[in-house]
Structure formats: C-alpha cells, structure tokens
Design a protein that fits this description.
By secondary structure, the protein is an alpha/beta fold. The chain folds into 2 domains: 56-139 and 285-357, D-Maltodextrin-Binding Protein, domain 2 (3-Layer(aba) Sandwich); 141-283, Glycine betaine-binding periplasmic protein, domain 2 (D-Maltodextrin-Binding Protein, domain 2, 3-Layer(aba) Sandwich), CATH 3.40.190.100. It has helices at 65-80, 93-102, 117-122, 125-128, 147-152, 164-168, 188-199, 213-225, 292-297, 299-307, 312-323, 329-342, 344-357; strands at 56-57, 59-61, 84-85, 89-90, 107-112, 129-139, 141-146, 178-181, 206-209, 231-235, 250-252, 273-274, 277-278, 284-291. Helix 10 runs antiparallel to helix 13. The termini are far apart.
C-alpha cells in the first residue's frame, strides 16, 4: 500500500514503537544509560557560538531500541550546540513521563503523540510539558494478515474474526481462538488492542499474545515462511515490513468502525483511514516531549527539536540492523553517528538555525 503524505508538515512513533512503535516494548525494571562516546563525533560547524555552553541536559529514551537511536541523534545535535548531554536514561513509557513531569528529566525524543496521549495528560499535560517537532512523521498502525489467507478465505475486515471458523485459521495454540501477535503487557499499545478486541465483540474468538516485540515477530515470520496464516498488530515503522511487504505479502485489515480509547482523543473514520481503508488508528508521529520551562529557557535546543526529521525508510533500515544483532547501546550510537555523517549537510543546517534561535533578535 502506498504510504500517504501527511496533511501537515511533520512523526515519534510510533507508538509502537509501537510498535516499537512503537512504546510497544516490555518495560525494563531498571534504567540503562547510553555509552560514553569520546572518539567519534560529527563534524564541527563553522560558527563558534555555543548557546548550550555550561548547561546540562538530562535526556531519556523508551525501552524500544529505535527510541535510543532517535535519542542518540538528538544528543549529537545538542552536543554540537555546546550542551553537556548526560547519558540517555532508559525507562518504561509511564515512568519516563512521570520523571519529566517531576523535573527529574528534561527531554524524551520519541514520544508517540497519539499512542502516548494518555501518559502525556496524566503527567501534567500542557501545563507542565510540551510536545515539539515531528521527528518521524506519517506513522500508522493496524492489523495485518498474510495475503494468501486473505484471498483464499476472503478476509478483508477485522470483525470477520468473530466467525469461529475464520478465527481458527489463526489459532496457533489450539485453544479455538485466533492468536494475534500484539504488544508488551501493560503498554499503551497492548491496552489499545485489548480495547478494540472488546469494542468489536471479538473476546470469544481472538486473544492477544503479549510479550517482547522481537520474539513475537520472529514467530510471525517463521509461521509465514512455513506457509501458515499470520495475524499481527503492525506499523509502517517495524523491521518486519522490510521482509513482509504490504500489498505483496500482507494486507491491512479494515475495522467495522472507528473506536478508540478516550485518552487518545476524538477521531472519525476519516481520521483513521488510509487510501480509503479504515484501519482503525489515526496517523501518528514521533515527537520530542520536554519540560515546558526547559524548552522556554533553551530556544536553541527547542529549535533543534523542531527541525530534526528522520525518514521512515531510515528508521526501518536501523530496525533491520538491530534485528540482525547490532543492538547494543554502542552499536546504536555508532549507527546514529553514521546517520549524521550521511546527512551532514542537512544536520549542519539544523545546528546553524538552532544557534540563530538563541540570539535575542532571532525573531
């Protein structure tokens, strides 16, 4: 399916983000930090003005490794502005938003605007926090099945799984229910899927398999290669999309009507449709969320956040590297540095514009 162009200039994603979106990963019990990096740095810009000199920034990332990749790119930019950037603190989405609200952290690059809307509101919302920029735009999520099964069983709509015979096609544990590869237990993504299963009356025929993204999707891919039917919650920012192509290998399922948790906001079928197909979730974007006061007193950093954009294709390329085993914090930092080098001219422009934003007459 051809990806739609967003109607507004833009996202993190995810969530899944995600899936990896987006924040669709199992929350860690402890925090982890980004590696120290003293040898490899992006090229220095021409001006010597450093608006961040003497100012410390406490950045964070979610448990999804793509969140660390985005965070490292943002950190490289902040360092070029002269900020003293502390190591990334990796936290579960709920704990991360609370830490921002309490003033224990300054920024989170990779916030899923819609998927994590409830967490944003519960953590003080617009009074304490601010969402900035569109790091990854045009993120969409929904349910996918393999094209072979869709065509042979004439399945086009998620609600058809209410039929026990159709649900049985996707039953991998022989309990009579379709197994839907979903998200980590307790994540906004998993709660969203459970909500829709209930909203569409599928509790008796569909069950969400919850867990870590990597093993869930590895099982999905293994079943596909064995010629077995697959059903999973998907996103266009997901490593498996580089192997299972939408339209050729898998298809999006439509939903019978738009039904979303109140925390996400009010949306119509028009908001959740792509190319005329209602996939049940509005287009999302990955953004920076930070303390309101911090963003107000650091216009250079805010300007950087407003400019940084990472194409979906680059996100999926990184996810593929991670899936192939290059998944340590050191690996991901190296990938971020390589991305900056490959986009050096654009990156340097962001830095120069951010420096201008710190000057009194910049407006």
């Amino acid at each position: 399916m051809k990806m739609p162009r967003p109607k507004i200039a833009i996202i993190s994603a995810l969530a899944p983000i995600i899936f990896g979106l987006i924040a669709c990963q199992s929350p860690p019990q402890t925090t982890s930090e980004s590696p120290e990096n003293t040898n490899s740095q992006p090229a220095k810009t021409s001006t010597t003005d450093l608006p961040g000199k003497g100012i410390k920034i406490r950045p964070s990332c979610g448990p999804a490794q793509i969140s660390r990749f985005i965070g490292e790119i943002v950190n490289l930019g902040l360092s070029q502005l002269g900020y003293e950037v502390e190591n990334l603190k990796q936290l579960a989405p709920a704990a991360l938003h609370v830490a921002l609200s309490n003033g224990d952290l300054d920024i989170f690059a990779g916030h899923r605007e819609k998927m994590q809307a409830g967490l944003f509101k519960k953590s003080g919302g617009d009074e304490k926090l601010e969402q900035v920029g569109e790091i990854v735009s045009n993120v969409f999520l929904g349910y996918q099945i393999d094209k072979k099964t869709a065509e042979s069983a004439k399945i086009t709509n998620f609600s058809q799984l209410k039929d026990p015979k159709i649900a049985k096609l996707f039953d991998s544990d022989n309990d009579g229910k379709a197994n839907l590869a979903g998200c980590s237990a307790g994540s906004p993504c998993a709660e969203f899927i459970d909500y829709q299963i209930k909203a569409y009356g599928l509790q008796d025929t569909v069950e969400q398999d919850k867990g870590e993204e990597a093993p869930l999707l590895a099982d999905v891919l293994a079943r596909y290669k064995q010629g077995k039917p697959i059903l999973y919650f998907s996103s266009n920012i997901l490593w498996i999309t580089t192997t299972l192509k939408t339209g050729a290998d898998v298809i999006w399922l439509e939903v019978p009507f738009t039904s979303l948790p109140k925390d996400l906001g009010e949306f119509t079928a028009k908001d959740t449709s792509i190319d005329g197909k209602n996939i049940g979730y509005p287009i999302d974007r990955l953004r920076v969320v930070g303390q309101k006061e911090f963003l107000k007193t650091n216009p250079a950093a805010k300007s950087l956040f407003e400019q940084i954009q990472i194409p979906v294709e680059d996100i999926n390329a990184e996810l593929t590297l991670i899936e192939k085993g290059e998944n340590s914090p050191e690996d991901i930092r190296r990938h971020a540095e390589a991305w900056v080098k490959n986009n050096q001219q654009k990156f340097d422009t962001w830095i120069e514009e951010a420096k201008k934003a710190s000057k009194p007459n910049s407006n």
